[in-house]
Amino acid sequence: QLHLQESGPGLVKPSETLSLTCSVSGASIRRGSYFWGWIRQPPGKGLEWIGIISYTGITYYSPSLKSRLTISVDTSDIQFSLNLRSVTAADTAVYYCARQVAPRNAFDIWGEGTMVTVSS
Amino acid sequence: QSVLTQPPSASGTPGQRVTISCSGSTSNIESNYVYWYQHLPGTAPKLLISRTNQRPSGVPDRFSGSKSGSSASLAISGLRSEDEADYYCASWDDSLNGLYVFGTGTKVTVL
Asked: Cα(A111)–Cα(A23) distance, rounded to whole angstroms?
């Protein structure tokens, strides 16, 4: 049974970098042709797609975040990460990691989410 | 700002049928599959409808999806109290270099 779990600091200062990790258990990131992605939900708002990455390093990023965003796959094959630079209060949100069957397809497995607050 | 527009709320009594609309454009819904997710507060979103009208294993047949042109719909028949949740449509958008877009979300209330 595939399981995803987000981890990282719950509080980040403005202008700093938000770094989160998604740990994958029950399967290897390397297996299959899946993509691995991040989605967030600001308080009181809807879901927002952040970006996705394949095991081979193919990435698709949200145009609105692209200049500040890096998504990477760990060489351990059991983790992938999100780095969002120069954060502001607008980046405060619950961040979810998820598996996507293919870029144009569904996110079929989700983590439980982790709350990140940007504040001094 | 989402490019897929949904009504902010919908409601019904137990047993009723509720329909949620999702309005997009030629670059997303009209050209690609539509997906629907159910989201209960404090939990992980759940894939409800895949590839416009397919139910993943375990999803009750009370839930159904459809599409016409650049609009899509989710129907919930035989509404139950446990269906009270937020529902999001989603699709791939072919504009720019490609991106995944979620709808604005609809809160379904069971009266």
From this structure: 9
Residues in A closer than 8 angstroms to B96, CB to CB, are 63
Residues whose CB falls within 8 Å of the CB of residue A45, separated by 6 or more in sequence, listed in order: none
DSSP state of A102: S
Residue with the larger pLDDT of the pair A33 and B83:
B83
Which of B40, B94, B100 to probe by mutation at the A interface, max A CB count within 10 Å?
A: B100
Set of chain B residues whose Cβ sits within 8 Å of the Cβ of A49: 90, 99-102
For the four alpha carbons of A81, A95, B58 and A25, in that order, the dihedral sign comes to positive
pLDDT in tens, B72-94: 999 999 999 999 999 999 999 99
Using DSSP, state whether A91 is helix, strand or coil: helix
Cα(A81)–Cα(A37) distance, rounded to whole angstroms? 9
B51 and B66 Cβ atoms separated by less than 8 Å: no
H/E run at residue A94: strand A93-100
- Where do we find the tokens 């329909």? B19
